[in-house]
Amino acid sequence: MSFLNSLVLDNGLSALAAANRLHICSAEPADYAGTLTVSLGTKNTPTIGAIGARTGGGRKVTVSAITDGAVSANGNASHWALVDTVNSRLLASRVLTATLAVNNGDTFTLPAFDIGIPGPA
Amino acid sequence: MATVALSTGSLDAGAPDLATPALQLIHHLSTGNLDAGAPDLAAPKMVLLYEPWPFRPDVGASDTLESLTEMLQSYTKEQRIAQRKAPRQNPRYTTRLDAAQFSRAKDFNRRRAGTQICVPIWWEGVRLAGNVSAADTEISIDTTAGDWRVGGRLIVWQDETTYALSLITEVADDHISLLAPIGADFTAPTVAPVRVARPVEGFSISRARKLSADVTARFQVEDNIRLEGDAGYPQYLSLDVLTEPTARVSDISENIVQAGIYNDNGFGLVALERQRNYVDHGQSIAFLEEGAAAVWRRRVWVHARNGKQKAFWLPSFNPDLKLTAPIGAADTVVTVKRVGLLAGYLGRTIMIELKSGTRYFRQITDAARVGAEDQLTVSSALGADVAASQILWFCFMSKVRFDSDAVTFNFVASGRGPLVATLAVPVTEVPQ
Fold first, then answer.
1. Which neighbouring-strand residues pair with B366?
2. CB B89 within 8 A of CB B102
3. Alpha-carbon gap, residue B96 to B59, rounded angstroms
4. Closest CB from A4, A95, A120 relative to B34
5. Cβ contact (<8 Å) for A115 and B41?
6. Host H or E run for residue B296
7. Residue B25 burial by Cβ neighbours in a 10 Å radius (0-12, 13-18, 19+)
8. Which residues is B90 bridged to in the sheet?
9. Which residues of A touch B (CB under 8 A)?
10. CA B430 to CA B191: how far, in whole Å?
11. Contact B47 A108 (CB under 8 A)
């Protein structure tokens, strides 16, 4: 499952520009409060690229690679979540490729990845 | 009576009058919804840089490579099956810590005992003469004597509080590229590859000293791989020939026993039921390696042994045979001083090593007594004239394998001086 806030669906990918923190989570969050509950680590101010064409049609933004995310709790990280801490919004979330055990004090890295909205079929 | 004929006329209705209605078509058109596709969110692959054990061992360090070999032994032969694709690496570090370091270490121990952590492989590390800057994404080091891997991790370490981990994206002989800038400035740091491991036995602490504590841990590495490479030994019959005499860094012993069941009823003769038709000849070999390149070469060679599986030739490095007449280039008969019974020569392999470094490996195919000497027929001519005065070693070789799946490298000086490693391995002769 994946989650994309209605704000993004209503206003388009430009709404993701408000994302200022990426969490790794032990479960898929449903909202901002839930994200904080399942968060195992964070990367502040992840770089969200400009909106561009998506391969296969549609539009996308790219979240730049993260090399120094800080793990702050012990658990099994299975999801990522992009949030807007100013407005307390969960903007997007999805599963990670694999679930990994993490411990407080570790550093996490993620490759660059896309969030896209395909065009009509 | 008159007959009256009656007839009835036809009763015809009029022509049917069917209306001609007008046909009117009504077009009902509908539009499908225009839906964009489902949002497409990626599922990236997370890689962790586990919290490292940052204390560099300065008291003692060792590294045990553990293979797993299943032995199937019969009366005449044995079959050896390697059960692991790569040996498990088990570095063991002892670090002497002052009070502040000890406090930090205990905090680490309590949080991380049993969890995955990053363990620097110090003896593969390189101490830089220069500095590393925060913006650097490339570090110039010699990578030829260490297990540097693309996708692996490294540590840039100045001291136990000043270090950084990074992922490796490219490895060349003279430099390493990082996934991102290292993020901090370092003065003459050590750059070492890092393995993911668990302190499976926890941490043991000795506080025998007043002002310091020794913390020891064994780390079981999880990202093990088989090291590829060639240690550069000459080969005979497709097996390496070990060309260095054993180093005297441990007890050098040999034993020759007959495997069997000794039936002793306590009051009569002790009967032997032989389990094999050959004797078990156990030996111990040892190495003293100086410098990173030599240690790396030995590690590659130990990996290639695959525990007990892969055999090699071990010269006795004892002057077993004494040449009594020069050997001609085309000779296949070699005259030597008598050693024992003729049967003892047959099938044995020999090494003739000249003082010049040239080595010949041959098999004895026949033997005959001539006066007080023995004439040995070897499998082929040497191709060069050899006189007794040229010979450094003229000895038998045994086809042996490791008699242990665990091989431990002991690092005598793993700190800031030249790298020195010793290892001692039991070996046993295998039937040819």
1. B377
2. no
3. 7
4. A120
5. yes
6. helix B292-305
7. exposed
8. B64
9. 2, 4, 8-9, 24, 54, 57-58, 60, 65, 67-68, 71, 74, 77, 80, 92-98, 100-121
10. 42
11. yes
Encoding tokens for residue B145?
A: 């004597």
Chain B positions touching A76 (Cβ under 8 A) are: none
Distances (CA, A) of A15 to A9, B289, B407: 9, 62, 59
Sign (positive/negative) of CA torsion B291, B292, B294, B298? positive
Structure confidence by residue, pLDDT tens digits, B189-226: 999 999 999 999 999 988 888 788 999 999 999 999 99
Q: How many CB atoms are located within 10 Å of the residue B229 CB?
A: 13
β-strand partners of B96: B214
* Structure tokens belonging to residue B64: 């045990």
Helix (H, G, I), strand (E, B) or coil at B274: strand
- Average pLDDT over chain B, rounded to whole? 91
CA A83 to chain centre: 7
Q: Are B47 and B167 spatial neighbours (Cβ–Cβ below 8 Å)?
A: yes
pLDDT in tens, B2-36: 676 777 777 777 787 888 878 777 877 877 777 78
Three-state SS letters, chain A: CEEECHHHHHHCHHHHHHCCEEEEECCCCCCHHHHHHHEEEEEECCCECCCEECCCCCEEEEECCEEEEEECCCEEEEEEEEEECCCCEEEEEEEEEEEEEECCCCEEEECCEEEEECCCC
d(CA A69, CA B194): 19
- Name the residue with tokens 């200022």: A20
CA–CA gap between residue B422 and residue B309 (Å, rounded): 22
Both tokens of B114, joined, read 């049993």
CB B57 within 8 A of CB B412: no
Closest CA to B347 of B374, B321, B323, B378: B378
| Burial status of residue B110 (CB atoms within 10 A of its CB: 0-12, 13-18, 19 or more) | exposed
User: Position of tokens 């091989």?
Assistant: B407
Q: Which two tokens stand for residue A83?
A: 């949030």
CA–CA dist B199, B109 (Å, integer)? 9
ipTM exceeding cut-off 0.85 for this assembly: yes
> Helix or strand or coil: residue B297?
helix
How many C-beta atoms lie closer than 10 Å to residue A8's C-beta? 23
- Tokens 């040995």 correspond to B376
Chain-chain contact of B40 with A115 (C-beta, under 8 angstroms): yes
Residues in chain B, total = 432
**Residue the block writes with tokens 């800031």:** B416
